[in-house]
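Appendix C. Worked example: ABC transporter permease
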Amino acid sequence: MSSKKIETQFEIIRTFVAILLAMSLAFLIILGISKQPLNALTTFLTGPFSSIRRFGNMIEMSIPFIFAGLSVCVMFQAKQFNMISEGAFFIGGVAASYIAVKVMLPMGIHPIVAILFGGLIGAIAGFIPGILKTKWNANELVSSLMLNYVFLYLGIYVINNILRDPNAGMMASFIFEETAMFKKIVPGTRIHLGVFVAILSIILTYLFMYRSKWGYALRMTGLNENFARYSGINTGRVIIYSQVLGGFIAGLGGATEILGMYQRFQWQSLPGYGFDGIIVAILARNNPLFVPIGAIFLAYLRVGADIMARMTDVPSEVISVIQAIIIMLIAANRFLAKWKHQRIVKDSQEKLAVKEGK
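Step 2, the predicted output written as structure tokens:
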């Protein structure tokens, strides 16, 4: 077995162990605070599968997680710790709402134009911290966090002054044109056609990352920027387009979520999906193919915790404990590192023994 395969196995096993430990600790907390711990645990674990509506809730919630996770994966692969996904997700939803309210297009074309426009605005959002990093070496973490609030209040300004419906009774846009909204595809749920946009995004992101020269340059820049630069890769351009692509995917996600789950734009604050994307990307180890697994798992935890909070005496905040422990253990480079080292040494000794036997 090659060291690369051992490394892949190690990351998968380490992720599962981290999840197992986090779940075990959460169960101990439930045992300590609940008067009916067995009922709470059963509700938490089986609640998302107890009805078609609840299962639908899990799939619905995983759709924005997929877009946010893909967005973060692309930027993290280039070692750009950019948090612009949150702001790009929000402003992408605003942009799609503008097309859904102000532009008249045929059914089938209308939502495509709306989400692409949302992606374009998200890409512009990602471009700003990218150009700040390459031109003035501004820290992308700080600039993107600050820009999230710029895009929040910019979006609120657009809703209030251009799209606001005065008869809505709240800060919300006019109702979207029927031709712009994604249709529901599973009776009894709110699962919408945006799920296919998410699947297509996973495939295209993977092909870009692992089957194109631009993706290769991006990954090499993330592994060692100096080496990539000396190898002839334009690392400045890579830094910019990694963040532009991340912003585009996040904007696409915001547009898809708005057109699939709402009849009008009504977010009044940042939705939090950008930060959820970090959790998904960590669970997926920045691999686009594993993003849907991480997204569905996180949605499963959220839906299960919500059902448990409504039907038992355990608050839904217990999910925060699980998320925090998973992130800490997966981010800890030394966690299970000794086991990986032993596997690599043992594999090398076996190969040497076989070679000497020949």
